[in-house]
Amino acid sequence: MDVRIVSSEEEGGKIALEMFKDQLAKNPASVFGLATGSSPEGFYREAVASDIDFTKATSINLDEYVGLDENNDQSYRYFMKDRLFDKKPFKKNYLPNGMADDLEAEVKNYDEIIRENPIDLQILGIGRNGHIGFNEPGTPTDITTHVVDLTPSTIEANARFFANEDEVPRQAISMGLGSIQKSKKIILFAYGEEKAKAIQGCIEGPVTTHVPASILQNLSDVTVIADNAATSLLKNK
Ligand SMILES: O=P(O)(O)OC[C@H]1O[C@](O)(CO)[C@@H](O)[C@@H]1O
């Protein structure tokens, strides 16, 4: 893994922007795996302020809450439109439909979309418990898209975005670890000391389902963009 320690989210966003531009220079019709949460926001700000052109590209998001529609400002569809898609249009944007009546059919549909659009470059955040997407600790490493019961730790962590903890949805649809591992290139962002334990486990710990992000150690092209606080527990810097 290539670990890039940065002094700000702006600096991290600029590094990622260059990697996106390199990918688009190779293929304007690239497929990008996108993430929500606070971690990729610096990158989205840099992308919006830049001349990057996604009009021939496709995006596939990692996850969506069950039960929130696109008008709900906490849905991930709303987030993506607000932070990126309304300002930088793509040829096509895919997110799981958390309002689907038949969630199992939606899971199959999303797997088909991922199969038809292999991801060239995937961005990830990391949960305090080491989750990526909404693949919580204990998730099998070969799982594809699935409906997740969120852990109490994730509900508590994400409550900061809602009026109170009771408002946080209890389920989400998430791309699986099996699909994430097929991405040709991955960038993982981590900022702040609350991510330090997860980053230490991800980079230096054993590869274990207890820390889902540790599977990234098995992949050949992973860049971790993190600040000093998030890398403070690393033994080898
Ligand atoms: O970037 P944040 O807000 O700390 O969240 C980290 C991770 O948690 C999720 O938001 C899910 O809880 C992921 O999508 C994200 O990668």
How would you describe this protein?
By secondary structure, this protein is of the alpha/beta class. It has a domain at 10-126 and 175-193: Rossmann fold. It is 30% helix and 18% strand. It has helices at 9-26, 41-49, 76-85, 103-116, 152-158, 177-180, 196-204, and strands spanning 2-6, 31-34, 58-61, 63-65, 92-94, 121-124, 146-149, 171-174, 185-190, 222-227. A 7-stranded parallel sheet has the order 1-10-9-6-2-3-5, with helices on both faces. Helix 2 links the parallel strand 2 and strand 3. Helix 1 (9-26) crosses helix 2. The model has no long low-confidence stretch (mean pLDDT 97). The structure holds 6-O-phosphono-beta-D-fructofuranose. 6-O-phosphono-beta-D-fructofuranose binds at residues 35-39, 62-63, 124-127, 134, 154, 158.
Which runs of at least 5 residues are low in confidence (pLDDT < 50)?
A: none
Bound molecules: 6-O-phosphono-beta-D-fructofuranose
Q: What is the CA-atom radius of gyration, in angstroms?
A: 16 Å
Mean pLDDT: 97
Task: State the name of the first-level CATH class of the domain at 10-126 and 175-193.
Answer: Alpha Beta
Number of helices: 7
Relative strand content: 15-25%
CATH level-two architecture of the domain at 10-126 and 175-193? 3-Layer(aba) Sandwich
What proportion of the residues is helical, as a percent range?
A: 25-40%
What's the helix-strand series? EHEHEEHEHEEHEHEHE
Order of adjacent strands in the largest pleated sheet: 1-10-9-6-2-3-5
- Please summarize the sheet with the most strands: 7 strands, parallel
- Overall geometry comes to globular
CATH topology name of the domain at 10-126 and 175-193, in short, is Rossmann fold
Summing up helix and strand content along with how strands pair, one would put the structural category as alpha/beta
How many strand elements?
10
N/C terminus separation: 12 Å
